[in-house]
Amino acid sequence: MNRTLKRAAMACLAMFALLMVNVNVLQAVRADDLQSDARNRRNFYERYAVERGRITAGGKVIAQSVETDSKEFRFIRKYPDAKLYAHVTGFFSPESADAIEANENKLLDGSSPDLLLRRSIDLFTGESTKGANVDLTINPKAQKAAYDALRQSGKRGAIIALDPKTGGILAMVSLPTYDPTELSGTDKGKVFSRYDELAKDKSQPLLNRTIAQTYPPGSTFKVVTTAAFLEADSSRGPDTTVPAPQRLTLPNTSTTLPNYGGSACGSGQVALVYALEKSCNTPFAQIGMDLGYNAMNEQTEKFGMGDQVAVPMSVAKSDFGPEEDKAALAMASIGQRSNRMTPLQMAMIAAGIANEGTVMKPYLVNKITDAKGDTVEAAQPDELKTDAVSPETAGKLRDMMVSVVSNGTANLAQVPGVQVAGKTGTAETADGQPPHAWFISFAPADDPKVALAVIVESGAANVGAEATGGHTAAPIAKAVLEAVLNK
Protein backbone atom coordinates (compact mmCIF):
# COMPACT_ATOMS: atom_id res chain seq x y z
CA MET A 1 0.00 0.00 0.00
CA ASN A 2 2.80 2.41 0.95
CA ARG A 3 4.61 1.67 -2.30
CA THR A 4 1.47 2.45 -4.27
CA LEU A 5 1.02 5.75 -2.44
CA LYS A 6 4.66 6.64 -2.98
CA ARG A 7 4.43 5.88 -6.70
CA ALA A 8 1.26 7.96 -6.95
CA ALA A 9 2.89 10.81 -5.03
CA MET A 10 5.99 10.72 -7.23
CA ALA A 11 3.83 10.70 -10.34
CA CYS A 12 1.89 13.73 -9.07
CA LEU A 13 5.14 15.50 -8.20
CA ALA A 14 6.55 14.79 -11.66
CA MET A 15 3.42 16.03 -13.37
CA PHE A 16 3.45 19.18 -11.22
CA ALA A 17 7.08 19.78 -12.12
CA LEU A 18 6.31 19.32 -15.82
CA LEU A 19 3.37 21.69 -15.48
CA MET A 20 5.58 24.36 -13.90
CA VAL A 21 8.18 23.92 -16.61
CA ASN A 22 5.48 24.26 -19.28
CA VAL A 23 4.05 27.38 -17.63
CA ASN A 24 7.47 29.00 -17.46
CA VAL A 25 8.20 28.11 -21.08
CA LEU A 26 4.88 29.62 -22.16
CA GLN A 27 5.23 32.79 -20.07
CA ALA A 28 8.95 33.46 -20.39
CA VAL A 29 10.16 31.83 -23.59
CA ARG A 30 7.20 31.73 -25.97
CA ALA A 31 5.23 34.72 -24.65
CA ASP A 32 6.24 37.13 -27.40
CA ASP A 33 5.66 34.61 -30.18
CA LEU A 34 2.24 33.64 -28.82
CA GLN A 35 1.23 37.24 -28.33
CA SER A 36 2.11 38.14 -31.90
CA ASP A 37 0.64 34.96 -33.39
CA ALA A 38 -1.97 35.88 -35.98
CA ARG A 39 -4.28 33.20 -34.57
CA ASN A 40 -4.35 34.93 -31.16
CA ARG A 41 -7.65 36.77 -31.42
CA ARG A 42 -7.74 37.73 -27.75
CA ASN A 43 -5.17 40.52 -28.13
CA PHE A 44 -7.00 41.71 -31.22
CA TYR A 45 -10.27 42.09 -29.32
CA GLU A 46 -8.55 43.63 -26.29
CA ARG A 47 -7.41 46.56 -28.43
CA TYR A 48 -11.05 47.54 -28.75
CA ALA A 49 -12.17 46.68 -25.21
CA VAL A 50 -10.91 49.87 -23.58
CA GLU A 51 -12.28 53.34 -24.30
CA ARG A 52 -9.20 55.15 -25.53
CA GLY A 53 -8.85 58.77 -24.49
CA ARG A 54 -9.74 61.70 -26.70
CA ILE A 55 -7.25 63.73 -28.69
CA THR A 56 -8.20 67.41 -28.63
CA ALA A 57 -6.90 70.70 -29.98
CA GLY A 58 -8.12 74.12 -28.88
CA GLY A 59 -11.20 72.58 -27.27
CA LYS A 60 -12.01 70.63 -30.45
CA VAL A 61 -12.17 66.81 -30.42
CA ILE A 62 -10.10 65.45 -33.30
CA ALA A 63 -10.02 61.76 -32.29
CA GLN A 64 -12.26 59.76 -29.95
CA SER A 65 -13.54 56.27 -29.20
CA VAL A 66 -17.20 55.53 -29.83
CA GLU A 67 -19.07 52.63 -28.22
CA THR A 68 -20.64 50.07 -30.55
CA ASP A 69 -23.22 47.29 -30.24
CA SER A 70 -20.59 44.66 -31.01
CA LYS A 71 -19.53 42.27 -28.23
CA GLU A 72 -16.14 41.71 -29.86
CA PHE A 73 -15.32 45.31 -30.77
CA ARG A 74 -16.75 47.43 -27.97
CA PHE A 75 -15.09 50.70 -29.02
CA ILE A 76 -13.95 51.94 -32.40
CA ARG A 77 -11.92 55.04 -33.24
CA LYS A 78 -13.50 58.02 -34.99
CA TYR A 79 -11.77 61.09 -36.45
CA PRO A 80 -13.86 64.24 -37.00
CA ASP A 81 -12.18 66.31 -39.75
CA ALA A 82 -10.07 63.22 -40.40
CA LYS A 83 -8.02 64.44 -43.38
CA LEU A 84 -7.36 67.83 -41.80
CA TYR A 85 -5.58 66.31 -38.80
CA ALA A 86 -4.38 63.00 -40.27
CA HIS A 87 -0.65 63.61 -39.86
CA VAL A 88 -1.19 64.90 -36.33
CA THR A 89 -3.47 62.22 -34.88
CA GLY A 90 -2.28 59.33 -37.02
CA PHE A 91 -4.39 56.17 -37.03
CA PHE A 92 -5.17 53.24 -34.71
CA SER A 93 -5.22 50.08 -36.81
CA PRO A 94 -5.83 46.46 -35.72
CA GLU A 95 -2.10 45.88 -35.27
CA SER A 96 -0.34 49.25 -35.30
CA ALA A 97 -0.71 53.00 -34.85
CA ASP A 98 0.92 56.19 -36.04
CA ALA A 99 1.71 59.77 -34.92
CA ILE A 100 0.04 60.79 -31.63
CA GLU A 101 -1.99 57.56 -31.54
CA ALA A 102 1.31 55.64 -31.47
CA ASN A 103 3.53 57.94 -29.45
CA GLU A 104 0.99 58.46 -26.67
CA ASN A 105 -0.53 54.97 -26.91
CA LYS A 106 -0.01 53.88 -23.28
CA LEU A 107 -1.67 57.05 -22.03
CA LEU A 108 -4.51 56.82 -24.51
CA ASP A 109 -5.27 53.18 -23.67
CA GLY A 110 -4.89 53.72 -19.92
CA SER A 111 -1.95 51.34 -19.38
CA SER A 112 0.67 54.00 -18.57
CA PRO A 113 2.26 53.87 -15.08
CA ASP A 114 1.28 57.54 -14.79
CA LEU A 115 -2.35 56.40 -14.57
CA LEU A 116 -1.82 53.81 -11.81
CA LEU A 117 -3.70 55.89 -9.22
CA ARG A 118 -6.62 56.43 -11.58
CA ARG A 119 -6.79 52.69 -12.35
CA SER A 120 -6.68 51.86 -8.65
CA ILE A 121 -9.57 54.20 -7.93
CA ASP A 122 -11.57 52.76 -10.81
CA LEU A 123 -10.93 49.23 -9.50
CA PHE A 124 -12.18 50.22 -6.06
CA THR A 125 -15.30 51.99 -7.39
CA GLY A 126 -16.02 49.37 -10.01
CA GLU A 127 -15.75 51.77 -12.95
CA SER A 128 -14.33 50.55 -16.23
CA THR A 129 -10.83 51.70 -17.15
CA LYS A 130 -10.62 54.58 -19.58
CA GLY A 131 -7.62 56.06 -21.32
CA ALA A 132 -6.19 59.51 -20.70
CA ASN A 133 -7.01 62.47 -22.91
CA VAL A 134 -4.27 64.14 -24.92
CA ASP A 135 -4.66 67.87 -25.56
CA LEU A 136 -2.49 69.32 -28.33
CA THR A 137 -0.98 72.75 -28.98
CA ILE A 138 -2.61 72.91 -32.43
CA ASN A 139 -4.65 76.05 -33.16
CA PRO A 140 -7.70 74.77 -35.12
CA LYS A 141 -8.11 78.06 -37.00
CA ALA A 142 -4.47 78.04 -38.10
CA GLN A 143 -4.66 74.35 -39.03
CA LYS A 144 -7.75 74.91 -41.17
CA ALA A 145 -6.30 78.02 -42.82
CA ALA A 146 -3.06 76.19 -43.64
CA TYR A 147 -4.88 73.17 -45.02
CA ASP A 148 -7.27 75.20 -47.19
CA ALA A 149 -4.58 77.52 -48.55
CA LEU A 150 -2.18 74.70 -49.43
CA ARG A 151 -4.94 72.59 -50.96
CA GLN A 152 -6.00 75.49 -53.17
CA SER A 153 -2.49 75.59 -54.63
CA GLY A 154 -3.14 72.13 -56.08
CA LYS A 155 0.38 71.07 -55.12
CA ARG A 156 2.05 68.76 -52.66
CA GLY A 157 3.68 70.51 -49.75
CA ALA A 158 3.78 71.24 -46.05
CA ILE A 159 3.17 73.99 -43.52
CA ILE A 160 4.28 74.09 -39.91
CA ALA A 161 3.72 76.98 -37.52
CA LEU A 162 5.20 77.50 -34.05
CA ASP A 163 4.76 79.77 -31.09
CA PRO A 164 8.31 81.19 -31.08
CA LYS A 165 8.22 81.92 -27.34
CA THR A 166 7.24 78.40 -26.25
CA GLY A 167 7.91 76.05 -29.16
CA GLY A 168 4.29 74.88 -29.23
CA ILE A 169 3.22 73.68 -32.68
CA LEU A 170 0.22 75.73 -33.86
CA ALA A 171 -0.29 74.08 -37.25
CA MET A 172 1.04 70.92 -38.90
CA VAL A 173 -0.26 70.25 -42.39
CA SER A 174 1.11 67.90 -45.03
CA LEU A 175 -0.48 67.32 -48.44
CA PRO A 176 -1.55 65.05 -49.91
CA THR A 177 -3.28 63.60 -46.89
CA TYR A 178 -5.39 60.54 -46.12
CA ASP A 179 -8.38 59.46 -44.02
CA PRO A 180 -7.19 57.75 -40.80
CA THR A 181 -10.67 56.29 -40.33
CA GLU A 182 -9.98 53.93 -43.23
CA LEU A 183 -6.95 52.56 -41.37
CA SER A 184 -8.65 52.35 -37.97
CA GLY A 185 -11.39 49.84 -38.75
CA THR A 186 -11.72 46.31 -37.35
CA ASP A 187 -11.65 44.44 -40.65
CA LYS A 188 -7.99 43.53 -41.08
CA GLY A 189 -8.41 42.65 -44.72
CA LYS A 190 -9.85 46.04 -45.64
CA VAL A 191 -7.47 48.00 -43.41
CA PHE A 192 -4.29 46.28 -44.62
CA SER A 193 -5.38 46.48 -48.24
CA ARG A 194 -6.05 50.20 -47.94
CA TYR A 195 -2.74 50.78 -46.15
CA ASP A 196 -0.87 49.01 -48.95
CA GLU A 197 -2.62 51.22 -51.52
CA LEU A 198 -1.60 54.37 -49.67
CA ALA A 199 1.95 53.14 -49.09
CA LYS A 200 2.40 52.46 -52.82
CA ASP A 201 0.91 55.79 -53.90
CA LYS A 202 3.65 57.84 -55.59
CA SER A 203 2.34 61.03 -54.01
CA GLN A 204 3.12 59.58 -50.54
CA PRO A 205 -0.02 60.61 -48.62
CA LEU A 206 1.19 58.79 -45.49
CA LEU A 207 4.36 60.91 -45.35
CA ASN A 208 4.35 63.78 -42.87
CA ARG A 209 6.36 66.23 -44.92
CA THR A 210 6.66 68.74 -42.07
CA ILE A 211 8.97 66.54 -39.99
CA ALA A 212 9.85 63.38 -41.94
CA GLN A 213 11.06 64.86 -45.25
CA THR A 214 14.10 67.05 -45.94
CA TYR A 215 14.42 69.44 -48.87
CA PRO A 216 17.02 71.86 -50.21
CA PRO A 217 15.92 75.10 -48.50
CA GLY A 218 16.84 77.40 -51.36
CA SER A 219 17.03 81.11 -50.70
CA THR A 220 15.28 80.90 -47.31
CA PHE A 221 18.65 79.66 -46.07
CA LYS A 222 20.18 83.05 -46.84
CA VAL A 223 18.94 84.23 -43.44
CA VAL A 224 21.32 81.69 -41.87
CA THR A 225 24.19 82.90 -44.06
CA THR A 226 23.31 86.47 -43.07
CA ALA A 227 23.25 85.45 -39.41
CA ALA A 228 26.74 83.93 -39.65
CA PHE A 229 27.99 87.07 -41.42
CA LEU A 230 26.61 89.38 -38.71
CA GLU A 231 27.78 87.16 -35.84
CA ALA A 232 31.35 87.18 -37.20
CA ASP A 233 31.59 90.97 -36.75
CA SER A 234 29.19 92.88 -34.48
CA SER A 235 29.92 96.12 -36.35
CA ARG A 236 28.13 94.77 -39.43
CA GLY A 237 24.52 95.60 -40.07
CA PRO A 238 21.80 95.97 -42.72
CA ASP A 239 23.67 98.85 -44.38
CA THR A 240 27.00 97.03 -44.61
CA THR A 241 28.15 96.97 -48.23
CA VAL A 242 28.77 93.58 -49.82
CA PRO A 243 30.04 92.68 -53.31
CA ALA A 244 27.25 91.66 -55.68
CA PRO A 245 28.58 90.81 -59.14
CA GLN A 246 26.15 89.83 -61.87
CA ARG A 247 27.91 86.45 -62.06
CA LEU A 248 30.30 84.84 -59.58
CA THR A 249 32.98 82.47 -60.83
CA LEU A 250 33.11 79.44 -58.54
CA PRO A 251 36.67 78.56 -57.45
CA ASN A 252 38.54 75.89 -59.41
CA THR A 253 35.74 75.58 -61.94
CA SER A 254 34.69 77.16 -65.18
CA THR A 255 31.18 77.55 -63.79
CA THR A 256 29.73 80.94 -62.99
CA LEU A 257 26.86 81.43 -60.55
CA PRO A 258 24.29 83.99 -61.73
CA ASN A 259 21.61 85.87 -59.93
CA TYR A 260 18.14 84.83 -61.04
CA GLY A 261 17.78 85.22 -64.79
CA GLY A 262 21.32 86.54 -65.02
CA SER A 263 20.13 89.90 -63.72
CA ALA A 264 22.34 92.42 -61.99
CA CYS A 265 22.12 92.90 -58.23
CA GLY A 266 22.31 96.67 -57.96
CA SER A 267 25.50 98.23 -59.20
CA GLY A 268 27.79 95.40 -58.10
CA GLN A 269 28.18 96.75 -54.56
CA VAL A 270 24.99 96.74 -52.47
CA ALA A 271 23.79 97.04 -48.90
CA LEU A 272 23.27 93.71 -47.16
CA VAL A 273 19.56 94.46 -46.67
CA TYR A 274 19.15 95.07 -50.40
CA ALA A 275 20.83 91.75 -51.21
CA LEU A 276 18.37 89.99 -48.90
CA GLU A 277 15.34 91.92 -50.22
CA LYS A 278 16.13 90.94 -53.80
CA SER A 279 17.57 87.54 -52.80
CA CYS A 280 20.70 87.99 -54.88
CA ASN A 281 22.73 84.80 -55.15
CA THR A 282 26.24 86.12 -55.67
CA PRO A 283 26.65 88.11 -52.41
CA PHE A 284 25.59 85.21 -50.18
CA ALA A 285 27.63 82.64 -52.08
CA GLN A 286 30.70 84.84 -51.60
CA ILE A 287 29.88 85.44 -47.93
CA GLY A 288 29.65 81.68 -47.33
CA MET A 289 33.02 81.07 -48.97
CA ASP A 290 34.64 83.91 -47.02
CA LEU A 291 33.30 82.62 -43.70
CA GLY A 292 34.34 79.04 -44.40
CA TYR A 293 32.63 75.69 -43.91
CA ASN A 294 33.05 75.46 -40.15
CA ALA A 295 31.51 78.85 -39.43
CA MET A 296 28.56 78.14 -41.72
CA ASN A 297 27.97 74.66 -40.36
CA GLU A 298 28.26 75.83 -36.75
CA GLN A 299 25.75 78.62 -37.35
CA THR A 300 23.24 76.13 -38.69
CA GLU A 301 23.83 73.84 -35.70
CA LYS A 302 23.15 76.78 -33.38
CA PHE A 303 19.64 76.89 -34.83
CA GLY A 304 19.17 73.21 -33.92
CA MET A 305 20.32 71.41 -37.04
CA GLY A 306 21.67 67.95 -36.21
CA ASP A 307 19.91 67.71 -32.83
CA GLN A 308 17.67 64.69 -32.35
CA VAL A 309 14.23 66.24 -31.90
CA ALA A 310 10.92 64.55 -31.09
CA VAL A 311 7.58 66.40 -30.97
CA PRO A 312 6.82 63.58 -29.76
CA MET A 313 7.04 62.00 -33.25
CA SER A 314 10.65 61.63 -34.30
CA VAL A 315 11.93 64.36 -36.64
CA ALA A 316 14.32 63.69 -39.52
CA LYS A 317 17.70 65.34 -39.04
CA SER A 318 18.52 68.35 -41.17
CA ASP A 319 22.01 68.60 -42.61
CA PHE A 320 24.10 71.44 -44.04
CA GLY A 321 26.05 68.86 -46.04
CA PRO A 322 29.62 67.52 -45.93
CA GLU A 323 32.71 69.68 -46.22
CA GLU A 324 33.76 69.71 -49.85
CA ASP A 325 35.38 72.45 -51.91
CA LYS A 326 34.70 76.19 -52.04
CA ALA A 327 32.37 75.85 -54.99
CA ALA A 328 30.18 73.40 -53.06
CA LEU A 329 30.24 75.71 -50.03
CA ALA A 330 29.07 78.61 -52.19
CA MET A 331 26.07 76.59 -53.34
CA ALA A 332 25.27 75.29 -49.86
CA SER A 333 25.33 78.87 -48.57
CA ILE A 334 22.41 79.76 -50.85
CA GLY A 335 20.46 76.66 -49.85
CA GLN A 336 21.47 74.25 -52.61
CA ARG A 337 23.99 71.42 -53.12
CA SER A 338 23.79 68.94 -50.16
CA ASN A 339 21.99 71.38 -47.88
CA ARG A 340 18.80 69.61 -46.70
CA MET A 341 16.26 70.91 -44.16
CA THR A 342 12.89 69.82 -42.83
CA PRO A 343 10.14 72.45 -42.84
CA LEU A 344 10.21 72.21 -39.03
CA GLN A 345 13.90 73.11 -38.99
CA MET A 346 13.30 76.15 -41.18
CA ALA A 347 10.40 77.20 -38.92
CA MET A 348 12.74 76.83 -35.92
CA ILE A 349 15.23 79.16 -37.62
CA ALA A 350 12.52 81.78 -38.13
CA ALA A 351 11.33 81.25 -34.53
CA GLY A 352 14.87 81.61 -33.16
CA ILE A 353 15.29 84.97 -34.86
CA ALA A 354 11.84 86.03 -33.65
CA ASN A 355 12.71 84.99 -30.08
CA GLU A 356 15.86 87.13 -29.88
CA GLY A 357 18.22 84.25 -30.61
CA THR A 358 16.69 81.55 -28.40
CA VAL A 359 15.30 78.46 -30.13
CA MET A 360 12.65 76.65 -28.09
CA LYS A 361 12.14 72.89 -28.30
CA PRO A 362 9.16 72.24 -30.56
CA TYR A 363 6.36 70.20 -29.00
CA LEU A 364 2.85 69.06 -29.87
CA VAL A 365 1.34 67.82 -26.59
CA ASN A 366 -0.06 70.59 -24.40
CA LYS A 367 -1.31 68.47 -21.50
CA ILE A 368 -2.54 65.03 -20.47
CA THR A 369 -5.69 64.63 -18.36
CA ASP A 370 -7.27 61.48 -16.97
CA ALA A 371 -10.86 60.39 -17.62
CA LYS A 372 -12.08 62.65 -14.79
CA GLY A 373 -10.32 65.71 -16.20
CA ASP A 374 -7.49 65.83 -13.65
CA THR A 375 -4.14 66.90 -15.10
CA VAL A 376 -1.62 64.08 -15.29
CA GLU A 377 1.08 66.03 -17.09
CA ALA A 378 1.40 69.54 -18.51
CA ALA A 379 3.90 70.80 -21.07
CA GLN A 380 6.93 72.65 -19.75
CA PRO A 381 8.40 74.78 -22.56
CA ASP A 382 12.15 74.33 -22.73
CA GLU A 383 15.03 75.94 -24.56
CA LEU A 384 16.84 73.98 -27.24
CA LYS A 385 19.46 76.61 -28.12
CA THR A 386 19.95 79.79 -26.13
CA ASP A 387 22.50 81.45 -28.39
CA ALA A 388 21.53 80.75 -32.00
CA VAL A 389 22.41 84.41 -32.51
CA SER A 390 22.85 87.32 -30.13
CA PRO A 391 19.81 89.51 -29.41
CA GLU A 392 21.55 92.28 -31.37
CA THR A 393 21.97 90.08 -34.43
CA ALA A 394 18.39 88.84 -34.08
CA GLY A 395 17.21 92.46 -34.15
CA LYS A 396 19.18 93.20 -37.32
CA LEU A 397 17.85 90.06 -39.00
CA ARG A 398 14.30 90.96 -37.96
CA ASP A 399 14.58 94.40 -39.52
CA MET A 400 15.96 92.98 -42.76
CA MET A 401 13.26 90.29 -42.96
CA VAL A 402 10.61 92.97 -42.40
CA SER A 403 12.11 94.84 -45.33
CA VAL A 404 11.88 91.68 -47.49
CA VAL A 405 8.09 91.71 -46.93
CA SER A 406 7.70 95.48 -47.17
CA ASN A 407 10.07 96.19 -50.07
CA GLY A 408 11.24 92.89 -51.51
CA THR A 409 10.08 89.56 -52.88
CA ALA A 410 7.49 88.78 -50.19
CA ASN A 411 5.00 91.63 -50.52
CA LEU A 412 2.10 89.16 -50.86
CA ALA A 413 2.68 88.08 -47.25
CA GLN A 414 1.74 91.51 -45.93
CA VAL A 415 -1.01 91.51 -43.29
CA PRO A 416 -2.87 94.83 -42.82
CA GLY A 417 -1.93 96.49 -39.57
CA VAL A 418 0.76 93.91 -38.76
CA GLN A 419 4.50 94.11 -39.36
CA VAL A 420 5.51 90.79 -40.95
CA ALA A 421 9.06 89.46 -41.28
CA GLY A 422 9.87 86.85 -43.90
CA LYS A 423 12.10 85.37 -46.57
CA THR A 424 11.12 83.77 -49.86
CA GLY A 425 13.01 81.05 -51.64
CA THR A 426 13.13 78.57 -54.45
CA ALA A 427 15.05 75.32 -54.39
CA GLU A 428 16.25 73.53 -57.48
CA THR A 429 15.66 69.77 -57.52
CA ALA A 430 17.82 67.05 -58.99
CA ASP A 431 14.99 65.21 -60.70
CA GLY A 432 14.33 67.82 -63.36
CA GLN A 433 11.06 68.94 -61.79
CA PRO A 434 10.19 72.63 -61.35
CA PRO A 435 11.81 74.17 -58.24
CA HIS A 436 10.17 74.04 -54.81
CA ALA A 437 8.68 77.27 -53.48
CA TRP A 438 9.56 78.23 -49.89
CA PHE A 439 8.63 80.93 -47.42
CA ILE A 440 9.58 81.41 -43.77
CA SER A 441 8.10 84.12 -41.62
CA PHE A 442 7.15 85.45 -38.20
CA ALA A 443 4.74 88.11 -36.95
CA PRO A 444 4.12 90.57 -35.46
CA ALA A 445 7.76 91.50 -35.89
CA ASP A 446 7.92 93.54 -32.67
CA ASP A 447 6.15 90.91 -30.51
CA PRO A 448 6.07 87.59 -32.39
CA LYS A 449 3.14 85.24 -31.79
CA VAL A 450 3.77 82.86 -34.67
CA ALA A 451 6.69 81.66 -36.80
CA LEU A 452 6.26 79.34 -39.74
CA ALA A 453 7.66 77.61 -42.79
CA VAL A 454 5.82 76.80 -46.01
CA ILE A 455 7.05 74.59 -48.83
CA VAL A 456 5.15 73.95 -52.05
CA GLU A 457 6.73 71.09 -53.97
CA SER A 458 7.41 71.93 -57.62
CA GLY A 459 5.67 75.23 -57.00
CA ALA A 460 7.83 77.28 -59.36
CA ALA A 461 6.24 76.16 -62.62
CA ASN A 462 5.73 79.01 -65.09
CA VAL A 463 6.79 81.62 -62.54
CA GLY A 464 10.08 83.39 -61.95
CA ALA A 465 12.24 81.66 -59.35
CA GLU A 466 12.15 84.17 -56.48
CA ALA A 467 8.70 85.30 -57.45
CA THR A 468 7.62 81.74 -56.82
CA GLY A 469 8.25 81.91 -53.10
CA GLY A 470 6.54 85.28 -53.13
CA HIS A 471 3.62 84.34 -55.38
CA THR A 472 3.00 80.73 -54.31
CA ALA A 473 4.21 80.22 -50.73
CA ALA A 474 3.88 83.72 -49.22
CA PRO A 475 0.08 84.00 -49.69
CA ILE A 476 -0.33 80.62 -47.99
CA ALA A 477 1.71 81.90 -45.06
CA LYS A 478 -0.40 85.05 -44.93
CA ALA A 479 -3.56 82.98 -44.43
CA VAL A 480 -1.99 81.19 -41.45
CA LEU A 481 -0.63 84.41 -39.95
CA GLU A 482 -4.07 86.01 -40.15
CA ALA A 483 -5.72 82.94 -38.59
CA VAL A 484 -3.40 83.12 -35.57
CA LEU A 485 -3.31 86.89 -35.15
CA ASN A 486 -6.93 87.79 -35.92
CA LYS A 487 -8.52 86.02 -32.98
TrEMBL record:
It holds the Pfam family PBP_dimer_2. InterPro entries: Beta-lactam/transpept, Beta-lactam/transpept-like, PBPA_dimer, PCN-bd_Tpept. The keyword Transferase does not apply. Residues 1-28 form the signal peptide. Keywords: Signal. SUPFAM superfamilies: beta-lactamase/transpeptidase-like. Residues 52-134 form the Penicillin binding protein A dimerisation domain. The keyword Ligase does not apply. Residues 157-482 form the Penicillin-binding protein transpeptidase domain. This is Peptidoglycan D,D-transpeptidase FtsI family protein. It comes from Nonomuraea insulae.
